[in-house]
Fold each of these.
Amino acid sequence: RCILKELESLGKALYGAKLIAQRFQVRNCSHHKDPVSGAACLLSMIEEGNPHHFFIATQDQDLASKVKKKAGVPLLFIIQNTMVLDKPSPKSLAFVQKLQMNELVPEHQKQSIVQLKEKEGLAKQEGEKRRKRKRAGGPNPLSCLKKKKKKKTQEDQEPSAEKKKRRKRKRNRVKAEAVHSVQKNEEE
């Protein structure tokens, strides 16, 4: 809301930017009655570890440097009509490493977990090995082969011998030119 108020106060020069900003979802900020500048409002919304997981898209270098000082806030900017996601800041990388170190379970807790599993009978025993499940395979490759032709037996050869004896009658067709010439000769 603060950004829309700031765009309204800047006048007709940024009317197009105001129309674009109105298309997006408007988030409520804590400055209802007395709006502050857009940069200050964005910084106040990402305080306390960016709980709503906002991305900040800006061309303002001052705002970008302030955003980089906060951990876990992605930064977008535009270079030659292309939106670019900036690489994580050193502050963000350090924060992630710190979280990973805190999430690791201390060695004494791992040992107590193993003891509790053994007590409850949930621990894996060395003698037991899981069997691999058989998965359904494809079709039998031998069933996919083409059928082979049978060798001809004597019974099969006899009808074929009869077929050889039969001859097809050839029809002699007279060419159209020959017919025309014969008709002309008859007319003369």
Note: The first strand starts at residue 56 and ends at 57.
Amino acid sequence: YYFPCQRWLAVEEDDGQIVRELVPVDEAFVKKDSENDGQSLATLGLEQKAKSTTYTVKVKTGDKKNAGTDANVFITLYGSKDDTGIVSLKASKINKNKFERGKVDEFTVESVDLGDLKKIKIGHDNKGNSTGWFLEWVEIDAPSLGRCLKFPCGRWLDKSEDDGAIERIIFPAELQTKEYIPFVPYEITVYTSDIFGAGTDADVFVVLYGSDGICTQQKSLCLNKREQRMYFERNSVNQFIVEV
């Protein structure tokens, strides 16, 4: 069995995850003597994307006194087929200081097929100066499935508040579930010209238009400013796997 990764495990890189679930692929993808290594890796990206589901997890901290927490927060997603195991919510895409009073934080969680999401478990390790946390709600969006679920909480995760629990199991609110056209993964290759000043550090985005006039949302190709500085250099070729 071959389990290629080709991804960062770093809070400040990629989607910020430091744990990855890998799926086995055909050995042809890992043969180094292939003349089409680039094409093989690109196809590998699509292959892995097709076997996994990317979840966008939004977490709302309540607007109450001392609602924010400095503790390490974790989440587990439970589906009809499987669960993710414990996932640390380390790198918020929106706020440098995460889980602050009244704020919404956004995280990315990747997993193999879980089936229909049934419940989540969310909690913290009670470590740090200010550990108590008031969790308003959690929203989990799965673009490849075309479903967005809301998990209302409205309770403390605090040893000195409410019932003293620092982790909770929450179920989705059926009336708040949204369904839409599922997203599709595309491999996008960008060739930057070899003329003076051709490269850019700007936020490069793509919109795809179909034959019937329907278009995708605007999608940035780089995940952060460091990638913006690294990609789209003069005379370079950059490949991206994006879901739109």
Note: The chain is about 10% helix and 35% strand.
